[in-house]
Amino acid sequence: MNLIVLLPWLVVFAIGGCSWIPRAGPSTSEVLEQGQVGGEVLFDIVEVDDRVVATLQAQPKERLAVRFKQDAQPPEVKIAIGDTVSVLIWESAAGGLFSESPTAPTPSGGRSGVEPLTPEPLRPELRPPAGEFATPLPPTETGRPQEQQRLGVGNPPPGSFSIETAAAATGRRAAVIPDQKVGADGAISVPYAGRVPAAGRLAEEVQHTIEARLAEKALGPQALVIVKKSEANAVTVLVSDAGEISQRHNTGQTQNETRSGDLTSPTPRASATVAKVPLPIGGERLLQLIAAAGGTKAPVHETFVRLSRGEVTATIPMEQLVEDPTENIYAQPGDALTLVQVPQTFSVFGATGRNAEIPFDARNITLGEALAKAQGLRDDLAKPEGVFLFRYEPNSVVRALDQPISATSREGVSPVVYRFNLHDGKAYLLAQQFPVHDKDVIFVANAPAAQIYKFFTALNQVTGPVVTGIVTCHYANC
Questions:
Q1: CB neighbourhood size of 254 (10 A)
Q2: Alpha carbons 1 and 326: distance in angstroms, whole number
Q3: Of the residues 192, 268, 437, 450, which has the maximum number of CB atoms within 10 A of its CB?
Q4: Is 83 a residue whose pLDDT tops 70?
Q5: Which domain range does residue 325 map to?
Q6: Which residues contact 456 (CB under 8 A, 6 or more apart)?
Q7: Does 294 share its domain with 404?
Q8: Among candidates 240, 297, 295, 302, which has minimal Cα distance to 272?
């Protein structure tokens, strides 16, 4: 009889005691109720179905090919102020301004005639470094360039020809104008031609100008202009070993800033390598520039590429650049290309087998994969109807979901809570399609019975020793 009287009281205490028993987070009903307070939307609650998944998957991604489509063609690499330029000049016959006079035998065996502008051999200070002249010379019948055949050497690696070799290969010595920088007036100095405009022009245009100015002074002059070093026609490539991309939880970028998902501009926070890669004639694409700068050692799915051009900046995953050939666009002079490693993570709380910040280990993962990484729902605690994903979404996405903009919306984003009912078998199919973003928070609420279970477990911790002592004493006749 005493137990029958006591049992209702225990149930009352159990139900009332649930409010003060510790738990991992709000209940399902509390999450649903807290979305609106006093008629004001604090965060949107979206029941996930086929339409919601399709809407999220249809959202456009940041694309370099679209953002910079006006620069789809390779750039014209023009000479700029400060560039280092070399000039070679040939004449069609000997005895001109830049060539030797015809030699004739003398009784003494000496040479007669006028010495050329550049004496034989080239002075060390005028000798250009090897490798500056990248245009291969015409092969001879033996398959080797003429100059190499004359010297009797084997085939060198590509790009190893110097200006001196190029001049000798023509069979006629050229006058080599010492290397010079394009001046502040945008011109270079050429003997007998004066100051020749160079800045903002192609090398071929400068060559024609030099030839035109020397036409009445030299014998059929031919000029070759070579840009040996150019700071303006280069791309700055910064490769960071580790870093972070600032999280604004929005796409409310300014005119000068775009984003991919929740990503804005990468901010290096560890060692970084900076290289200036010159652009060759014909242009260079982004992946080739990254390779020329040494590439990145970070996993591809953790690396992001940020391209800054003028007043526009865009960021995409490195994996997207590798997988989509249309994203591998031409670089332009003055571009800044940044590669930064950013580990993508999501956080899991509540009634799951593992509460932790978990890395993606891939470029894209779904909610189903995320729950699996968290060791699934606990069958002794979890409420399958109470699986929530918390995220800040751009206002454009909120409108596409037919949801009101939250009163707490800032900088073009609103908080959204997606709810999954895993009691429904179809929800597992939706979970396999629902994309998880960097810094998402997944929460699984407890079932109501879990709190009662915790209450009786706590009660047993207190009453168990007392009951055990009473029973022991009763049978021991103490």
A1: 8
A2: 82
A3: 450
A4: yes
A5: 64-74+233-341
A6: 14
A7: no
A8: 240
